[in-house]
Write a structure and sequence with these properties.
Elements lengths: L3 E7 L16 E2 L2 E2 H10 L5 E6 L3 H7 L6 E5 L6 H6 L2 H4 L5 E6 L7 H14 L3 E7 L8 E5 L2 E6 L6 H4 L3 E10 L3 H5 L16 H7 L4 E5 L12 H21 L3 E2 L6 E2 L4 E2 L4 E2 L4 E3 L3 E2 L4 E2 L4 E3 L2 E2 L4 E2 L4 E3 L2 E2 L4 E2 L4 E2 L4 E2 L4 E9 L2 E2 L4 E9 L1 E3 L4 E2 L4 E3 L9 E3 L4 E2 L4 E3 L2 E3 L4 E2 L4 E2 L8 E2 L11 H10 L1
Parallel strand pairs: 1-4, 1-6, 4-5, 7-11, 12-15, 13-16, 14-17, 15-18, 16-19, 17-20, 18-21, 19-22, 20-23, 21-24, 22-25, 23-26, 24-27, 25-27, 26-28, 27-29, 28-30, 29-31, 30-33, 31-34, 32-35, 33-36, 34-37, 35-38, 37-39
Antiparallel strand pairs: 2-3, 6-10, 7-10, 8-9
The structure holds uridine-diphosphate-N-acetylglucosamine and calcium ion.
């Protein structure tokens, strides 16, 4: 097999997105569009991967900075796809073999199809091989004009005659090119069209005129080569990825009551016998164990949930860990650094941040627990607040095993509540509580006899 050099075009403005964000960083099922393309390309183990950037080049470079083995070239101004390919000449001048040209806005292409493209390209010895598809709605795509069986040229929608617009075979914008003579031929492309741009598809006619072979590979699943030019197309393509994801999970034993309203990102993992109710969003790098129950309105982002966990309705969980057998919600908010240990229970209107809630511990109603380390078998009463912020910095609260925090308590950090200690209801705790002690902070209660009757009388006067 000859060397494969991948080129990904990503310099365009994406005008039709009407968005300030670079088009190829818009997320398809939670993953930036260009990452889908990079993943497919990487599976071919190419010799080199070059990305042509231009519009918002810095944002793109920054978004991909964590990835090694990428070469960036800048296309400024953006004068069309042929001009974009020409920018890679300094990188590929001495390379041999095949250029696999991908578009960063065509994210569903499978590695298998790319392999088929390369196989065909190499087997036929063509100068160019184009992936095409026959689709119901060809609008917006370049059309494949054939003469007899063979491809003659590609015509863009804006330049097509009415008869050409009726053609349903479209250009995917994905090609394999022999490097031999490629750049010299691309220089032959003229910008004589409705957009006054240098169109890479024009290379087909140029090669045909020069008697060099051009082949096509027509894919049987046209969804694979869908391009994204607008936010409506982004939503359609995301839906396709999500449908595939939910189908995979269901095949692996996950109950998804309503796939149409379930939003599961591509990289999420869910164990068998977990039930996902309608209207759930599982995002990013989330993993969920087996036998869980995830109720409607729950959003979980980049979190690890163990086995047999129940998450009641309308919880938001981000960057958190929830161990097996725990129960959360309804209406709980587990923020970054939350660590619920085995069998812990968090109830309604409870917010946790950077807090460990130990094995079997409970905080069932109306609480804020931040920067706290809470041991096993602790009961945190309704309305408890860790006052972790003094206006300058965050301070820790430690609650040792078996402690009982009465309702409506404020624990002013830094503070430690000792093992098995009790905090009386309504206490404001500013000093450490020794193990086994009871801490109370309010003064004795006074009852003023006959006060109501007296008040009524004075207001009558
Ligand atoms: C392109 C093809 C069309 C094909 C369709 C498939 C051309 C002229 N037309 O049309 O035949 O059916 O893709 O999706 O190629 N880009 C640059 N620099 C530029 C212009 C574009 O890097 O100067 C990049 C874009 O960022 C994008 C890709 O090239 O990733 C395709 O450009 P786009 O403007 O979206 O082309 P289409 O009109 O979709
Ligand atoms: Ca496009």
């Amino acid at each position: 097999m000859s060397d494969v050099h991948v080129v990904i075009l990503a310099a365009g403005k994406g005008t039709r997105m009407k968005s300030a964000r670079p088009k190829v960083l818009h997320r398809v099922a939670g993953v930036p569009m260009i990452q889908h393309v990079l993943a497919a390309a990487a599976s071919l183990h190419p010799r080199s991967t070059t990305i042509v950037v231009g519009h918002q080049a810095d944002a793109l470079r920054a978004a991909l900075s964590g990835q090694s083995g990428l070469t960036f070239v800048v296309q400024e101004p953006q004068r069309g796809t042929a001009d974009a390919l020409l920018r890679t000449e300094p990188v590929l001048r001495d390379a041999r073999g095949v250029v696999l040209l991908l578009s960063a806005d065509v994210p569903l292409l499978s590695a298998e199809t790319l392999e088929n493209l390369l196989d065909r390209h190499v087997a036929t010895g063509a100068a160019a091989t184009v992936i095409t598809a026959v689709v119901e709605r060809p609008q917006g795509y370049g059309r494949i004009v054939r003469s007899g069986e063979r491809i003659a040229r590609i015509v863009e929608e804006g330049d097509a005659s009415p008869a050409e617009r009726d053609i349903h075979e479209i250009n995917s914008g994905i090609y394999a090119f022999a490097l031999e003579g490629l750049f010299q031929s691309v220089r032959g492309v003229a910008a004589e069209n409705a957009q006054a741009e240098y169109y890479l598809p024009d290379l087909v006619a140029i090669y045909r005129d020069r008697g060099r072979g051009v082949e096509t590979l027509t894919v049987s699943r046209p969804d694979e080569i869908r391009g994204i030019n607008s936010l409506a197309e982004l939503a359609e393509v995301s839906r396709i990825v999500r449908q595939k994801k939910t189908a995979e999970l269901m095949a692996a034993g996950v109950t998804i009551e309503d796939p149409a309203t379930t939003y599961i990102d591509r990289d999420v993992v869910v164990g068998a016998d977990t039930v996902i109710h309608p209207g759930v969003a599982l995002e990013g790098k989330t993993t969920i164990g087996g036998g869980c129950d995830i109720h409607s309105g729950v959003r979980i982002v980049d979190s690890r949930i163990g086995d047999r966990v129940t998450i009641h309705n309308h919880c938001v969980i981000t960057n958190a860990k929830v161990a097996s057998g725990a129960t959360v919600g309804p209406f709980a908010h587990l923020r970054t650094g939350t660590d619920l240990r085995e069998g812990a229970r968090v109830g309604n209107f409870v917010e946790l941040k950077n807090t460990v809630l130990g094995t079997g511990s409970k905080s069932m109603h109306l609480a804020y627990l931040g920067d706290a380390t809470i041991g096993a078998k602790v009961n945190v009463g309704a309305g408890t607040i860790t006052c972790n912020y003094d206006g300058v910095s965050k301070k820790p609260t430690i609650i040792e095993d078996g402690a009982f925090i009465g309702s409506d308590s404020q624990l002013v950090a830094p503070v430690t509540i000792g093992k098995d200690a009790y905090v009386g209801s309504g206490a404001t705790i500013r000093e450490n509580v020794p193990p086994g002690a009871l801490a109370v902070s309010a003064g004795p209660q006074r009852n003023i006899e006959g006060w109501v009757e007296k008040k009524k009388k004075t207001s009558r006067d």
